[in-house]
From TrEMBL:
The keyword Repressor does not apply. Residues 5-231 form the ABC transporter domain. Involved in beta-(1-->2)glucan export. Transmembrane domains (TMD) form a pore in the inner membrane and the ATP-binding domain (NBD) is responsible for energy generation. This is ABC transporter ATP-binding protein. GO terms for molecular function: ATP binding. Keywords: ATP-binding, Nucleotide-binding, Transport.
Amino acid sequence: MTATISVTDVEKTYRAVRALRGVSFDLQPGRLSALVGHNGAGKTTLIKLMLGLIRATSGAIRVLGEDPAAGEFAGRRQLGYLPENVAFNSGLTGRETLAFYARLKRIAPSSAWPLLDRVGLAHAADRKVGTYSKGMRQRLGLAQALLGRPRVLLLDEPTTGLDPALRQTFYDICDELRADGATVLISSHALTELEDRAEHVLIMNRGLLVAQGTMDELRHISRLPIRVTIDLAPNTDALPAWLGAAPQATARGSVVFARDDAEKMTLLREAAADPRVRNIEIAAPTLDDLYAHFLQSQEAAA
């Protein structure tokens, strides 16, 4: 499968500041990727490079097969972008704002009206943007990014200011675009939201790409333990020997840690055969856990 976005050994410096250092990755069509990292990690710089707003100091970037910083980037109208802090002309209405961006993409403004309804702004379409709340401006920004059904969607903190219902609508829209073959990249601090949605995770720290892969791949690389909580019957006098040495005791049960899937499966087989076991819960390392682990490992190696 040909990558929609290809970043190869990219460096970006601002005088003495190395904003990006040897970053390489590919983004595939039909996949949602998460770009995570602290403020200043290089996430926004990467997005600006992919949009062609700035040029790399060295290395190569290809978006839809072209250099996005080239003067004639034919794929520009196939990109959707939502910045972290959206800013619109406060004197225009929501409908006029979308019409303006539709003309920039050379599409009929009337094709944008369904997006106003999709993001929950149909009732305020003819109000001036200056009267909008922050959440409403974020919705308008999302509608702007979705104009023309883009093949590449780059979103910087897209769910900031959205209520839970609209946040779910946002991810439903992302799923539709992915099913249509679009590449979706979300830069966000909302790791819990992304954990079950991202098929590919890029972890940045101080301009370096410290880890990338699927959640399963990152768990395997990190070798962080799997948390297994086993609830025993109330009348159990002693812990079963198969629990191993010194499991952690909690009000709900005993917690043991499996080093890998094979050890986890051994525990589950033992638990399933023991009539004293009332419940089993398994918690694999979360994206928060993985993020903290890879950042700590990189800092220790620096």
